[in-house]
Design a protein that fits this description.
By secondary structure, this protein is an alpha/beta fold. 36% of the residues lie in helices and 16% in strands. It contains 17 helices and 18 strands. The strands form 5 sheets. It has a 5-stranded parallel beta sheet. A 5-stranded parallel beta sheet has the order 8-17-9-12-13. The protein has a 3-stranded antiparallel beta sheet with strand order 4-5-6. 40% of the residues are buried. The chain binds flavin-adenine dinucleotide (FAD). The site of flavin-adenine dinucleotide (FAD) has 30 residues, from helix 1 and helix 17.
Length: 530
């Protein structure tokens, strides 16, 4: 008889849930303990009431979400109409490309976790869920790893999966005038009608703007147009989004899913680039070939033939940077909505979307100088392309603009940010100073290092072993990390971002989980990044 494997999963967001799902598929008898520091397991940080309200949208639709037990669309279709209506959804209008409020997606994941656990128990596995239980440390012992919570030390575990997800500054690091992230207490905070600065222009920045403006007025849809009606008492409200380039994100575009294969930018072709003396330039030649084949007119318009990995980003952003960002957003919105209605794919956008996933695999192996060039150039193009936001988010930004509340500030490469007790000041290179009574840093998740790990014993061991960035194998188990080696799988996204800069999103969580489960039944391990 095969021995039961004891596994601890720390964190029950999408990564924890998909890990459980794939472990159960490995065909071994399991004894799984799930730990969740929040009050309700299965929701995950971006989808929880602590960090989102009903106005905040997910930028992933059912068609892209790997099903846990059922698809997101099947789950939505099974919900009572009144529940859907409370999230602004019409049961008649549900479809698999629709973006829904993040809170609803969180409810889906929770329900799926509970269904999964019920099925697993019925199949003879032992599953325990500990809610309101934060794991404070992960220890080692002869028999296996241990998980320490406030109350107990559990274990031994054959495998511990760290699926702790996002790590943003704590609520107590925020003041009434400065929020180090939109997830550090902003959702519950009362923001007065003052000049509010938001650093960043991504979906997180839109969320931050929503958290503020919804306290001072209402969005109303009339004849297909969205308007924002500001409360008369809040006429002093001003929201300023800011970034170095001052461009807004574009709206999510239609494309075939699952992704069609690429011709030139393939795994083997990129691996061959690494063997050349100029890996990034060789990879960029492939990227040029791919884009030119997909969309010759775009390639011609941009002058792609004569561009390099360093000049391509400037050419890509040039017309946006010199246009009025809100007018650009209006045109872009019209275009993507038309394309969605007519199922038209803009070939260059689709090519870039697929290319970034392939290119990510070689980023960590680029020589240092190439890596720096990549980070300051091509990476920004890829992020701009995949971080396109729901059309509804653009509609809201335009409605705020039309209501005279929203503006955009271009900071340029050089600026200074000074936090004072009651205000935050931004000084630009030309000496212009902007003062904000409330300031929200919405620049998103940063890549973290071993030093940032919240588990002291693990942190110490990694640092003693000289691992500033945790080194993981293909099944995400640690390498050369003393007794943690091969036993602790590090699936916490911020710690993987250094080597895999685009690792985020629900599909990435599912891929990581699948690789972890595969490792449970395989003995040979190779480095994730060689
Ligand atoms: C604001 C925001 C919006 C996003 N929106 C989308 C989107 O629309 N679509 C998309 O695909 N991706 C989105 N993402 C990307 C995100 O990375 C993934 O969707 C997903 O949430 C990552 O899942 P996770 O399980 O790794 O982490 P999380 O969702 O962060 O979950 C981690 C869980 O671990 C728990 N935990 C942490 N530490 C401990 C501990 N010590 N002990 C016990 N429990 C612990 C937390 O309470 C949490 O429940 C978004 C990210 C952010 C920040």
């Amino acid at each position: 008889m095969t021995a039961r494997r004891a596994v601890a999963i720390i964190g029950t967001g999408p990564t924890g849930i998909y890990s459980l799902k794939h472990l159960l598929g490995a065909g071994l008898p399991l004894d799984v303990t799930l730990y969740e520091r929040g009050p309700r397991a299965g929701i995950g940080m971006p989808y929880s009431p602590q960090t989102a309200n009903k106005s905040m949208l997910a930028n992933i639709a059912s068609i892209e979400i790997p099903p846990v037990v059922s698809t997101y669309l099947e789950w939505l279709e099974a919900q009572p109409p009144a529940r859907l209506a409370s999230y602004g959804l019409d049961p008649e209008d549900l479809d698999d490309r629709q973006f829904t409020p993040r809170l609803l997606l969180g409810e889906y994941f929770r329900d799926q976790l509970l269904d999964l656990v019920e099925d697993a128990r019925a199949a003879g596995h032992r599953i325990a869920i500990h809610e309101n239980t934060e794991v404070l440390d992960i220890g080692t012992g002869e028999e296996g790893l241990t998980a320490t919570t406030l109350a107990v030390r559990d274990g031994p575990f054959d495998r511990v999966i760290v699926a702790t997800g996002h790590q943003f500054p704590d609520v107590d690091e925020a003041t009434r005038t400065y929020f180090p992230s939109p997830w550090s207490g902003l959702i519950e905070a009362a923001i007065p009608a003052v000049r509010v600065g938001i650093m960043g222009t991504s979906l997180s920045s839109t969320d931050a703007a929503m958290a503020v403006v919804n306290q001072h007025g209402r969005f109303r849809s009339r004849n297909g147009t969205l308007r924002f009606d500001l409360d008369p008492a809040s006429s002093d409200l001003e929201v300023v989004l800011m970034s170095r380039t001052g461009v807004l994100p574009e709206a999510d575009f239609y494309c075939p899913i699952p992704y069609e294969p690429l011709t030139f930018v393939t795994g083997p072709a990129l691996a061959a680039c690494l063997k050349t003396s100029k890996p990034l330039d060789a990879a960029f030649d492939l990227i040029k070939d791919e884009i030119t084949q997909a969309d010759p007119a775009f390639a011609l318009r941009l002058g792609l033939k004569s561009l390099t990995a360093d000049s391509f980003p400037n050419a890509y952003f040039a017309s946006r940077e010199t246009s009025d960002p809100f007018e650009w957003a209006r045109r872009n919105l019209q275009e993507v909505e038309y394309n969605k209605a007519h199922k038209i794919t803009v070939a260059w956008r689709y090519a870039l979307l697929r290319i970034h996933e392939e290119v990510e695999d070689i980023v960590a192996d680029l020589p240092e100088a190439d890596r720096e060039r990549f980070d300051s150039g091509l990476k920004k193009v890829f992020v701009d392309n995949y971080a396109a936001v729901p059309s509804e988010s653009i509609r809201r930004l335009l409605a705020l603009r039309d209501a005279g509340i929203l503006s955009l500030l271009t900071l340029g490469e050089d600026y200074e940010l000074d936090r004072e007790e009651s205000v935050t000041r931004i000084t630009r290179r030309d000496g212009q100073v902007d003062t904000f009574e409330v300031f929200i840093d919405a620049r998103g998740q940063k890549a973290l290092t071993s030093e940032d790990l919240p588990f002291p014993s693990l942190r110490r061991t990694l640092l003693e072993n000289g691992q500033e960035i945790p080194d993981v194998s293909q099944d995400y188990s640690l390498i050369e990390a003393g007794s943690y080696t091969g036993r602790l799988c590090l699936a916490a996204l911020p710690y993987l971002m250094h080597d895999r800069p685009f690792v985020q999103g629900i599909t990435a969580c599912a891929d990581i989980a699948e690789a972890i489960a595969a490792g449970l039944t395989t003995r040979r391990r190779r480095r994730l990044v060689s």
